[in-house]
Amino acid sequence: MNRNIDINNNNNGGIDYSITNEELSGYVQEEDYEAIKQRYGGVSGLSKRLGSNEENGLSQQEATNEERIHRFGINKMNEIAQKSLFFFIWQAIHDKTLIILIVSAVVSIILGLTVEDRKTGWIDGTAILVAVIIVVLVTAGNDYNKEKKFRKLNTIRNERNVSVVRGGHLASISVYDVVVGDVVKLETGDTIPADGLYIAGQSIAVDESSMTGESDQKRKSNDRPFFLSGCQVLEGSASMLVIAVGPNSQWGKLKLLLQSPDSDTPLTQKLEKLAETIGKFGLIAAILTFGVLLLKYVIVFVKDGHTWHWSELGTIVGFVVTAITIIVVAVPEGLPLAVTISLAYSMMKMMKDQNLVRHLEACETMGGATNICSDKTGTLTQNRMTVVKKIIGKSINSDDFVENGKSSMSDQQRDIYSSPSSSSSRHNVYNDSGKVNQHDCEMEMLSNSRILTLLAEGISLNSTAYIEKHTDRLNDHIGSKTECALLEWLETMPNQSYETVRKENKDRVVKVYPFSSEKKMSAVLMNQNQNISGGLIIYVKGAAEIVLNNCTNIVDKNGESTQMSRDEKMLLQKDIEIFASEGLRTLVLAYKEINNEPSSEDEAKVIYTGLTFLGLVGIKDPVRKEVPRAVKRCQGAGIFVRMLTGDNILTAKNIARECGILKDGGVAIEGPQFRLLTDDQLDTIIPHLQVIARCSPTDKFRLVHRLRELGEVVAVTGDGVNDAPQLKEADVGFSMGIAGTEVAKEASDIVLLDDNFNSIAKAVIWGRNVYDSIRKFIQFQLTVNIVAVLIAFVGSITNGESPLRPVQLLWVNLIMDTLGALALSTEPPSEELFNRRPYGRFDSLITYRMWRNIIGQSIYQIAFLFSIMYSAASMVELFDLPRVDQWTTNDKTVYHTIIFNTFVFCQFFNEINCRVLDNQLNVFRNIHKSYVFVGVVSFCIFIQVILVEFGGEFFGTRHLDYKQWFFCIIIGFGSLIWGFCLRLLPLKDRTNTNIEVKPLDVKNLGIDVDIESQPLLGGKSNWKKARNVFTQINVISAFRNQPRLKRTKSLFATKSSDSNARYNRNLNGSGYGSGSS
Description:
Elements: H1 21-30, H2 33-40, H3 43-49, H4 60-63, H5 66-72, H6 85-93, H7 96-114, H8 123-154, E1 161-166, E2 169-174, E3 183-186, E4 195-207, H9 209-212, E5 217-219, E6 226-227, E7 232-244, H10 250-256, H11 266-303, H12 312-330, H13 334-352, E8 355-357, H14 361-367, E9 371-374, E10 386-392, E11 402-403, E12 406-407, H15 411-418, H16 438-446, H17 449-461, E13 466-468, E14 476-478, H18 481-491, H19 498-505, E15 509-516, E16 521-527, E17 536-543, H20 544-549, E18 551-555, E19 561-563, H21 566-581, E20 585-594, H22 603-608, E21 611-620, H23 627-636, E22 640-644, H24 649-659, E23 667-670, H25 671-675, H26 679-685, E24 689-693, H27 697-709, E25 714-718, H28 724-729, E26 732-736, H29 742-747, E27 750-752, H30 757-799, H31 806-824, H32 848-870, H33 872-875, H34 889-913, H35 931-950, H36 952-955, H37 962-983, H38 1002-1005, E28 1010-1011, H39 1023-1040, H40 1044-1051, H41 1060-1067, E29 1074-1075
Parallel strand pairs: 9-22, 9-25, 18-21, 22-24, 23-24, 25-26, 26-27
Antiparallel strand pairs: 1-2, 1-3, 3-7, 4-5, 4-6, 4-7, 8-27, 10-21, 11-12, 13-14, 15-16, 16-17, 17-20, 18-19, 20-21, 20-29, 23-28
Helix pairs in contact: 6-8, 7-8, 7-12, 8-13, 8-31, 11-12, 11-30, 12-30, 13-30, 13-31, 14-30, 17-18, 17-19, 21-39, 23-30, 30-31, 30-32, 31-35, 32-34, 32-37, 34-35, 34-37, 39-40
């Protein structure tokens, strides 16, 4: 490009202010170039109306024009300010349970300082406030820290420079300074800074998968001129006219969708409902207590003929204090802390499992997930195109003929295949024992230096891609993913390096013929190697069936070009068909030797015809090794896994089958068909829908939205800008930490640091563990609260005071609950969590079995505690105390200490019971692995001993002898035996309700869908052997040109197998590859 263009040649005019952002953005969104041509005469006319010029761009004055910037905006989104710690503190205080606690604490402090003993009256309320402060600080601190980590994750790659033409000169400016009307220069590897229109260029291809979800590279030209911001240039170069920036670009519009408010998670809704119910229960108990005490006081007051004095008001206020105490006891102040501890603990552990949790609630929500809608590229697959199958020259693809290294062909069939009459097709690679080895076949071909040189030069020099090599991580692929796969394959060959080949042979290149979407081939013309006298050599690669049709020769094992027979070509065509049916992208490498450089008139004919077949390769993005097992685990856990991808139906189905997602009876559908479905049709298909191919962002959003409307808890994965809406809509959104865009991460709840579906499976087990931990604590907390409230309520009514002092209730209801939350919320998960169905959105937080345990343990504890409270006369000998009528204040305090100590030890042993939610009898299972649980319970017992023995007047306790201690411990231990008996009761929990599966009537559905089915041979048949037989018939039929091949193939096809017509239709996709893209 000429960098010295005179600025005076700039024919820029003024801006046409009739052009609006909405109009320009609409052109890009609809890709309506016809409208641009009709109104402005094309890109040239539009650039003039924008005050720009196709060659010289904007002048510096126009680029900084305030009117232009005001009218069309800047290339920057309004950044969300980082939230401060005080913001998260204020947010945490708005929890309803905490609000009830704060009000209760303030009232308790006021009454304690005005009515009770000022020395101790303030303790209860202050202690509650301390608990609230702890909860708020822990919650806010966690949120603030994860916000900082997330911002640190997104600071990479934000600021960058781009090349633009300003006043006829090339300039490098910040991406934020790009304005509408700028002419941007794009090169391989660049990220497109704004929406724009193609002006001129050379063989430019763009990866738009982050915006459209389609993995096919998009070639840009005057007929397809639209560039989308945020996408990457894979190859070539071009100049682009910017027509939309910042929030007006397609990237910006998608990011604006993220500003919708977050919805409450299923657990949040259930906890709020539980807190309200418990609050009402406590309020009713308090009102009844106050009412009974006041009625009793009035009856006694009237009956004894007392005269009213203002001092009597203190008695009534005392009734209010008792009522408030009951409310405080009833409110589960340990519950929010239990939730926070459990989520924070899980968040830290999930980080080790490659899950960066942005929203703590997502931990537990994932445990109730009933559906996972997963992207394909990078999540299920490695996001690295790889050569997985190849045929070099006349080598044989032994995978089609061999099982476990042994040929399944008969001697007669082997004779036919390797007979002199057919030896021209592929050389005989069988040894005397009938064994054949694919690796040996390849090595035999590659051992020939001539073949190795042809492959190395054809791959290295007929390519613009390159690989950035790293020692500490995987290499980065720059340029065409298909070409990078070939380069990686070349690097695995003996003593080969594409960089060395390019460096040593760059001077030999005569002319490059870039890939043409019309010809579906690319080529490079070179001088012959100095070892070969004179002449030129052409290397060609492209769509397999097209290049193969242009081949007349084939390279043999000696590296010589020999004539290709009709049978050989037919066999290679069948190989291409088999490769494509497996979802592979197929390429053929070929070459041709000529004497002189062709003239421009004969160029196409000379370059692309009469080629020598060098090799056939099958390329695909391989499935991650751990994915099939992870998918199976999720399915075994009752989670419906679906795959949503922008790839074609053939590739999508093959990958889904390989992952174990597409199964018998499953439906695979393409996006255009999906969009035609009515809501009723969609509801009919949803229980069977496993794959959506050619899936657009709106398709994903509609599916996720509909699933949530039907009551499903949905998790979604995504990495591109186009995935942001559905990530936001889902109950749990997973973004990719490596390949994910900033917008996708901003919209997500959890960032997968390794972009791996297996990490989602780990998130499921942690989510279920969180949910179970919270349930365990609720089971423990409600038992404590029910017993404490009833003791306080009955004791206050019968004796005028609670046998448990407020400071003792503080220990029981606050400290023990808090430590109990720590103990029960930090138990590690077990693999057994995968052996049950998900809880779902509408599952009750408290199950039938939990109610059995709560009510059963409450009855046990209340029965013994009431017996002690109201049978003192008959129990004094057991406790070595004098008769009740001879009790001193100390004796009464000892007796109350026994009640308190028995109550506390019942909670200690019941806490062990609460480790189990189902009917499992062994409550000590894996307790040795729960270090925190054992430590907390041991610490609580130690503190209890200290408080009883040394609490004194402040705590209202007295020293107990060994008999009294033994009694308290035995009664507490009895709750373990009682819990064992309760779990023997044959009680089942409610079964989770799922979407009603309607029968799939394809005929009345009104739209064609693919239903996956098992092979007609049946599940018990020897399918692998049958496939080998089919392959043998394939070979023989290819040579004999018999029509029975198609009939035989149909025997092994599935009911929904892809027809030849569909295969041929997929062959016409863009890019080099045939079949899959």
